[in-house]
Design goal:
With about 190 residues, the chain is mainly α. It has one domain. It is about 75% helix and about 0% strand. The protein contains 11 helices and no strands. The longest helix is centred in the N-terminal third of the chain and has 19 residues. It is globular, with a radius of gyration of 17 Å.
Length: about 190
């Protein structure tokens, strides 16, 4: 199984046009496999699997975001896949945000790399993922209403700092600033004992 995920990353890096032209159920299964591999963040699992899956997801999102005029047919096919399963990228974004914010994962940089592209391609998904994170925060901390109100504002401020300086660009420099600031959200969300 471990050999599958590096192959998937290579295919997403070098053959996105071909992958986009696959039938929707096949493409959605590939993305589902990426989502499955993203869950392998902590031992006893091999964390390289989650890093390879994050890289594969990054290539898919980058391809969608940077779509060129010469690749109109594969981009249209990719959009058709997304319309077939509209929650696909939203679930991936929520999963990545939850992992980066709540889990102490050694490969945080790799996991947060595709997040910017996911956010920029659909900001509505980002808003819904933020809401999901807020609910998870409340459930994880089991706090009372007064503390929940405080944490909600702290969380909003943290996510505001995370996205404040973003322009609608997907560049390596911008991609590298997201992992650097995402870890701060986890520290801000931890309730004081």
């Amino acid at each position: 199984m471990r050999g599958y995920f590096p192959l998937q990353e290579i295919l997403c890096h070098n053959h996105m046009s071909y992958l986009c032209m696959l039938e929707s159920p096949v493409f959605i299964q590939i993305v589902s496999n990426i989502q499955y591999g993203l869950k392998w963040v902590n031992p006893p699992h091999d964390i390289s699997v989650s890093s390879e899956c994050a890289s594969a997801l990054y290539h898919i999102v980058e391809y969608r975001f940077r779509g060129s005029k010469k690749e109109q047919q594969p981009l249209a096919a990719l959009q058709a896949h997304i319309e077939t399963s509209p929650q696909m990228f939203g679930q991936l974004l929520a999963q990545l945000l939850e992992t980066v914010v709540y889990d102490d994962c050694p490969n945080q940089w790799a996991l947060s790399r595709p997040m910017l592209g996911l956010i920029l391609t659909n900001e509505v998904l980002y808003a819904s993922a933020r809401a999901r994170i807020h609910i998870c925060l409340l459930l994880r901390t089991r706090v009372y209403a007064a503390v929940a109100f405080f944490l909600q504002h702290t969380q909003a401020a943290s996510f505001g700092i995370l996205t404040a300086a973003w322009l609608r660009m997907l560049t390596p420099l911008r991609n590298d600033t997201l992992p650097a600031t995402a870890g701060g959200i986890r520290a801000d969300q931890a309730p004081d004992d």
